[in-house]
TrEMBL record:
HAMAP family for the chain: GTPase_RsgA (MF_01820)
InterPro entries linked to this entry: G_CP_dom (IPR030378), NA-bd_OB-fold (IPR012340), P-loop_NTPase (IPR027417), Ribosome_biogen_GTPase_RsgA (IPR004881), RsgA_GTPase_dom (IPR010914), RsgA_N (IPR031944)
Lineage: Bacteria, Bacillati, Bacillota, Bacilli, Bacillales
Gene3D superfamilies: Nucleic acid-binding proteins, P-loop containing nucleotide triphosphate hydrolases, Probable gtpase engc, domain 3
Purpose of the protein: One of several proteins that assist in the late maturation steps of the functional core of the 30S ribosomal subunit. Helps release RbfA from mature subunits. May play a role in the assembly of ribosomal proteins into the subunit. Circularly permuted GTPase that catalyzes slow GTP hydrolysis, GTPase activity is stimulated by the 30S ribosomal subunit.
Species the sequence originates in: Halalkalibacter kiskunsagensis
Top enzyme class: hydrolase
UniProt gene name: rsgA
Protein name per the record: Small ribosomal subunit biogenesis GTPase RsgA
Amino acid sequence: MATGMIVKALSGFYYVQTEEGIIQCRGRGNFRLRQIKPLVGDQVEFEAENVTDGYILNVFERKNELIRPPIANVDQALLVFSALEPDFSPLLLDKFLVHIEANDLTPVIIISKVDLLDSRALTIIESYKKLYEEIGYTVLLTSTLQSDGIDEIVPFLNEKVSVVAGQSGVGKSSLLNSLQPELNIETNEISSHLGRGKHTTRHVELLRIGGGLVADTPGFSSLDFSNLEAEDLSACFPEMDEQASNCKFRGCTHTSEPKCAVKAALEQGEISESRMKHYLQFLEEIKNQKKRYDK
């Protein structure tokens, strides 16, 4: 028996990366009865007579698991947003960050097309960069020129399993092509009717880029809060989570409770008004979602 990582799943076959190369495997016959579904990113135990005829015998415990894309053991998410066309959306960024925090991933925020901005708009983007860096996030600015800013991204990929996510139509596949041109990942033009990009990938695959592995399928295509409870939301805002233990009431939602440390930090400027506004918006969304489910 040998061990390896599943790097591609396609048509019932699992392609397992080992030190000797890639072995094509099928899942063990009783996996379905045991409700075990191997995922790309899984560390597995397998046996194989040759490179095209292997069987996965065991799937090792996962540290995390994403639903969209279906992938396991992810270390980080590259969040790709554009400064312009489409305009940068801090609301959408915060929504992505909540999902990333909830899945225990490390985000790397990438804001592209900064070379298209005038000085006033660039100042606004730089203020957002400062805000998110003060929270503790990594923020990288890139331009429309493929080489400008791309080299900064490469060290963050080293020895990591990454997914790419972010605004629709910002060129996530183009970013991967810039990082490793020989990949030639297929991209589509932005759909003007839908106002969002289309993605052509039909299976999940981990591609070796910059010393790490990157999923070629955009992550977090669904951004609802169905798996998040209202009382857990503030833990997905690191600056709020840091203050929450000082609140008078356990399970404080930082809305109307007295002696709330988060609201005090907001008044002192330690938490940004825009982040608090988004937190309250997401909290309302979660509560409304639960009401619909409870009917």
